[in-house]
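Fig. S4 source data, part A: sequence.
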Amino acid sequence: MTWDQAVERAGQIAAADMPPALRSADHWDWVAIRGVVAVVLQALAAQTAVSPADVPLRDVLEALQHGSEHVRRIAEPVTRTATGSAEAWQWLTRTWPRPSAEGPRDLRAQYGGMSRGIGAGHTGAAVDTVTAWAARAAERAMEQGL
């Protein structure tokens, strides 16, 4: 049950609801949605002793539909110890700086050089901002038979 497997499958799921032009490590929305899905995959895989590739998509969708507090609760045990996911979880749960009050702002600077569409200007954690979007991606992936 490796983090890389979870990220790979999460990318396939997230791609079901995101245009190809936005599927980039330079796009905050992509990194956030893929990251939340990957953490859920890894948590469910650990609970059921299967690989992230074998976690039923309906279980991923159900976990995401329970909201960000549920995602935080199931993610905590695996993100404390698993290589790769601990760093991703730190990013997914960090808060972001407030936009500068000085004239036009460069949102890329605010988000570590990344562009952002979902909740631009919001200072909250990605896991709290995109869990519903991640659920929508999982739902689209199910519709597409992934």
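Fig. S4 source data, part B ends here. The two ends are 19 Å apart (CA to CA).
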